Request: fold
Amino acid sequence: MVAHLVRLKLTLLRNGLRRSAWQIVGLAVAALYGLVVLGLVFAGLVGTSVTRPDLLPTVTVLLGSVLVLAWALVPLLAFGVDATVDPARFVLFPIPRRALVTGLAIGALVGVPGVVTTLVALTVAGVWWRDPLAVVAGLVGSVLGVLTCIVASRTTTTLMSTLLAKRRFREILAVLVVLPFILLGPVLSQAHRLDVGAGTLDRVVLVLGWSPLGAAWAVPAAVTDGDPLGALARLAVALVTVLVLAIVWDRGLAHSAVNPPHEQGSSKAHGLGWFGRLPASPLGAVTARCLTYWVRDPRYAMSIVFIPVFPLIMWVVAPDSQVLLLVGPVTAFFLGWSISQDVSFDGTAFWTHVAAPLRGWTDRLGRVLAVTVLGLPAVLVFAVVPTVATGHGGDLPAVLGLSIGVFLTALGVASVASALVVMPVQKVGENPFGSRQGGSTAAVTSQLAGWAATFGLVLPTIGLAVVAVQQGSAVLGGLALLVGVALGVTFLVVGVRIGGRALERRQTALLSRLVSFP
Amino acid sequence: MPPEDVRATLPDQAPPALLLQGLWRRFGQKIAVAGIDLTVPAGSFYGLVGPNGAGKTTTLSMATGLLQPDFGTVLVHGRDLWADPVGVKAVLGVLPDGVRLFDRLTGAQLITYAGLLHGLDRETTAARTADLLAALDLAADAQTLVVDYSAGMTKKVALACALVHAPRLLVLDEPFEAVDPVSAANIRDILASYVASGGTVIVSSHVMDLVQRMCDHVAVIAGGHVLAAGTVDEVRGDASLEDRFVELVGGRVGGEGLAWLRTSSD
Reply:
């Protein structure tokens, strides 16, 4: 049975690759990324083991703990993480749960993250080459550690899909879980400001080494320290961790097998909302629909939630510096670019637009208007407030010009991009802990091309604004404002027209693609 | 039968509501539709039947502007759909199968959206939305998000969206799937009176009985070809439509196939 499940996973992988060339590119990119990470970790560990063997206990426990934590938490926030073998699909087969659990766990190792984790774990065991007994202990610890990783990630997934039956709650949670992760990097980057002595780190490692996260990885260090009892005790902690997690996972699986996630309650909304307020025309209707979705569709609502996050990060990283002038333009870019996946987000519901006697430019302009209503005020606020608050009021025209220019240009480029490329995205209403496979590289490529195009088109404004700020020139600042707005409006108009024509030509092809997505 | 014959039998020389000529469509290696000709007379209630994977959905998608044919023409009331998509789509009402709706809108909002996209004014849209919600027994759920509708309710609200702009030709792919018997009867009444007032309806279905009772014309499609087309009586002859369908499509397997499935065997 275990072999069957692993073979199933391999078959799914192979068939996925046969489906489209992009899948191959995606796997290659993921493998390359994994290889780079692996190379860095390998070099770092080997280097440490040769030059500073005294640091090994600290490094291995920290690395292992991060690995376990990542596996446990990533299923919560990464929408595209591999869940090709969803336990829910085996509900109808008479597979003993023990075999299913084992098979799914081993199957989880097939794939780039699993392979990288295994190799890292082996390296972690290998660094104890000075002491053969520690290597053996390390191997045992590493196997337990990898098991903890996999079982922890499966437990998280299963528990979440079982517990969160209510749609709205799930959607909000998905947003809330991501926030701390986004803030984690900047906060860590500031951590050096706190007075962290070596003593603190040692204490952290000591605690981690006894905790479920790090116990498995702390076994060999205890062996080299000549502390067999400590090693055994940590081994016991690690074993109990895996067992407890496995039991929770198993129970969760048993529960969800007979109580599949089920929608509870239903949402009501009164009146026609935006449809009653905007002009009764196709353009007004498209705008009203998009505005409604910006609030009600969690994928869009997520973008709204994240609008204040970037300024917050900038403020944490570099309070009262000139870098804060970038808050406006960068927010403008992300807001403007946010409609680049609009048709993909529509999914097959896009047929409504294809079947209607709708001009392409109406579709494009409606989407642009909706995000402008929400986004332009935010862009203006984020351009003005940080600039004035940091005492750079004189640079305001340049910053405003750049922000507005970037916003309108990104809207124009995104209007063309979303008429050309659709990609598999999380469907609206789908379990945010579920997954989308494939196409992510196509997404990345088209996104990068769009970013480059936007950057290239905004370059004149960027040049003017930068020189204006550097020289403190009011004249150049005014010019930047003028050029930014003028070029932005031009690119937006051109983008909507080109995008509209492209959409009329390609809408049936886009719809076929959307229908063909799993 | 070739289209010319059908046209000759029409009472007047008005162009048919829908004329498909030599439609082809290939998906990768698979030819889904291989040269379909079909004439749907104006004012007819036309049934499209065929086994799974026969090309019904592909044909209807091409006939409604949702899928570009590789070859062939689609004439709606004599106007070439693919030459003037925006103009022709205004007279078409479509209910596709296997696609989502903008389901974060409420039922009332979704129908309003469809009406406004077709260029109706605010008052007309509001009045028709209310009428449709009442006629399809959705009035109580008008303010509920479509994502929280049951499968049958979703079909009904999609049907309302197809009807709201009073199209001349209504193309419905599996309109009765998952719909309860009472609602199905209501929908049949709505469609029958729409046909009686001069509209044209095309429905695809697996349910032969339903097609035999409801439709006046029928076409049998299998393997991307039209096997038979005409009035229901012409196609079925002396047999029931179901028997005639099985005879045309073939593929019946003898009852001896799964001998081990007899529970008495152990």
In short: The mean pLDDT of chain A is 82. Chain A touches chain B through 45 residues (CB under 8 Å).
